[in-house]
# Entry
Amino acid sequence: MRNLETILKKLETRADNERVFNMIYQDDARLEADASKQRVKERRLVGPLDGRIVSIKDLFDVKGEPTLTGSVIRKTAAPAKADAIVVQRLRAAGAIIIGKTHMTEFAFTAVGLNPHYGVPGNAVDPTRVPGGSSSGAAVSVAEGSSEIAIGSDTGGSVRIPAALNGLVGFKPTAKRIPLEGAFPLAPSLDSIGPLAKNVADCILADAIMAGEPPVLPVAASLDGLRVGLPVGLLLHNTEPEIAFAFDLAVTALEKAGARIVKIELDDLILALYEATRIGSIAGIEASRIHAQTWLKVSDANVDDRVKHTLAKRLDVSDEAYKRLMDTRLKLVADMDQRLRDIDFFVTPTTPIVAPTIASVSENPVEYDRVEALLLRNTQIANQFDLCSITLPMPVSGMPAGLMMNARNGADKQLLSAALAVENLLS
# Structure
């Protein structure tokens, strides 16, 4: 158990400029820590997360307070009537909930900027972006103010900030973990996942949130595993240092006995790209969620990057949206068949390292370029209903991630393989 008082003291010293947390539960965290210590004395721990310090993204309900989701307009929202289900399960498992972490507004953007609450600078270099939308979640773990962070992932919002801050981040198969009490972005794509410094902590948090026994699996043997290597789009425009680290990781997998199999995914990716010319699934679904509150209010105090994109998606008809979702359903089935003979496929999590905050804040064209690159690889798992995990790759300079993706429902096998790959890369 990390020293809670040391962490709270550190957070207190920066209270006037706090950009990682928007809520810190000092009193409750102390009570939870005291209760855990008593259980230790009495040898009746309730599980492997008992006494572990956990942060939660600011879209999870906590009873008695409004859920802000990175927005100022929700400060007057009705207080939550109950904790989100995942928060209930974490508390029951003895986790110490230290606070809620900052995020991009309504979880809609991937770079990590929020005009209302400031940007939690990247934990490795504060002049660089943290990634989003679970920006504060990643920084809280990387800086040591939490041991595990709980985020949401609709297009990469767990894995992007995890990769940019040198962490492990897991996106489970959607719907495996209940979404009740989590403010939605796009219900068809939303999933809840953990960020941590190692795979084991992600496995334990994931199991508890899913209502499963928190038991670590045996690390898989890499010898004989079939590892897919996509050719084409998912490796384009990769920065040289990331491409070099990725090539070394693939070579290490091969030397460990994995069978590297080139796979073609571009046709499926391009087919979905064509179907989403009317707008992304996330944009269309989010526009419907917010249409009845602020989206049709011209002067709503909402990040322009969110407001303008969602407003454009209001014009998408229900018929067009249904056609898009029917196409997606077919492509999900096609992807599942394409992956039936491999254990997982690998790509760089993001093809770029974290850019400077200044470069994306001051140049809208550069912002759009960066966001498209950050989302390019990660969103495949959401769009095609896969499970996915990012692991830190050995690099000099800013962090980079290796992403492992597997078929829908193959979470346990993927996590077992990730334990082995983590050992290999370390």
